From TrEMBL:
Annotated family: Belongs to the prephenate/arogenate dehydrogenase family.
PROSITE patterns documented for this protein: ACT, PDH_ADH
Protein name: Prephenate dehydrogenase
Domain annotation ACT: ranges: 293-360
Organism: Agromyces protaetiae
EC number(s) reported in the record: 1.3.1.12
Length: 360
């Protein structure tokens, strides 16, 4: 067992996906975890999963991690600060400025509070979806503010490092503008695009490939949760959506008459701008390395994907990423294998020699 940086008990309030994942990760390091939730069932499930124990009257945690919906986060944080006067309290809500402002307004002791936000999750919620390794390698923002000193707030840094996440320090305002761009607006765009499918003919939907699935994957997220998130971060999200609307208007104007002088140039410039934007996104391990995709046809039979991965390892090529798409109407999958560009030709040749069918 790897020893924790934390010394003392940690109280986790909210035994859903994030809270139970935090608890499981800490328990794996031997930390005494106290579980609390408005739902006794969630607590019971999390305890059965080995995520921690029920509260005791004698508990004196060094850290409280609040993992509840955004619209009640500030209220719960204030209650935990009052209940445990020697503990530092953090939360994992996806919006930070409003929570800090509300705590200051109600007179809470923000000298023991620092907000944080792990950029990790899954499509499913609840304690049964939790994983001890959910945060490994993921960014985890600490929303620093002047009211708390470094020494007192360092216990939150210890939590983040214990769980294998990458610590990022931002102000609450910087965080909220950042997540508006990389999380909240993409959710809106994905949902609005998927809404176009409601009246689409079945024949059109039958043509759906990986591209449209990529664009709309997060459209299946919980509407109730997103109403809270978008309401709490409305101003930055609105600013970006207004600029996005301007971008769409340029496309619409150019497509009104695609044969008009300059129309194709405008479309090309907008698309090229998207290329440049994607290139700025960090790749594997946060680097800017770009990979080449080799598409391999995999029969839809047990063991075939495992055999492909094993043979890629035997060839001596490092697999950088993998995505699997099923071919409509055929018992075959398309494995999109991403490798370094200099390894792509050798991998293609050697897989073909081993009987694999390479698409494209």
């Amino acid at each position: 067992m790897v020893v924790s940086r934390l010394t003392g008990s940690v109280r986790v309030v909210g035994a859903g996906l994030l809270g139970t994942s935090v608890a499981l990760g800490l328990r794996a390091r031997g930390v005494d975890v106290i579980l609390a939730d408005a739902s006794p069932t969630h607590v019971a499930i999390a305890i059965d999963l080995g995520a921690g124990r029920a509260p005791l009257d004698s508990d004196e945690p060094v850290l409280v991690v609040v993992c509840v919906p955004p619209d009640v986060t500030a209220r719960v944080v204030a209650a935990e600060l009052a209940a445990f006067p020697d503990a530092v309290v953090t939360d994992v809500a996806s919006v930070k400025s409003g929570i800090l402002d509300e705590l200051v307004t109600v007179g809470a002791d923000v000298s023991r509070y620092v907000g944080s936000h792990p950029l990790a999750g899954r499509e499913r919620g609840g304690p049964l979806a939790a994983r001890a390794d959910l945060f490994v390698g993921r960014p985890w923002v600490v929303a620093v503010h002047d009211g708390i000193g470094y020494q007192r707030g360092s216990v939150v840094d210890d939590l983040i490092l214990d769980l294998g996440a990458t610590l990022v320090e931002l102000t609450a305002e910087e965080h909220d503008r950042g997540v508006a761009l990389i999380s909240h607006v993409p959710q809106v765009v994905s949902s609005v695009m998927a809404r176009r499918f409601l009246d689409a003919p079945n024949a059109a939907l039958g043509l759906a490939g990986q591209g449209v699935r990529d664009v709309t994957r997060i459209a299946g997220s919980d509407p109730d949760l997103w109403v809270q998130i978008l309401g709490a971060n409305a101003a930055p999200v609105r600013d970006i959506l207004l600029a996005y609307r301007d971008d769409l208007d340029r496309f619409i104007d150019a497509l009104a008459d695609p044969t008009a002088p300059g129309a194709r140039k405008r479309v090309a410039e907008e698309l090229a701008g998207g290329n440049l934007g994607v290139e700025r996104l960090p790749g594997k391990h946060g680097t800017d390395k770009r990979f080449t995709t080799v598409i391999v046809m995999v029969d839809d039979r047990p063991g075939q994907l495992a055999r492909l991965l094993a043979e890629i390892g035997e060839i001596g090529v490092n697999l950088e990423d993998l995505r699997l798409e099923h071919s409509p109407g055929r018992q075959v999958g398309l494995a999109e294998v991403q490798v370094l560009p200099e390894a792509a030709d050798r991998l293609t040749t050697e897989l073909a020699e081993r009987g694999w069918r390479i698409a494209g």
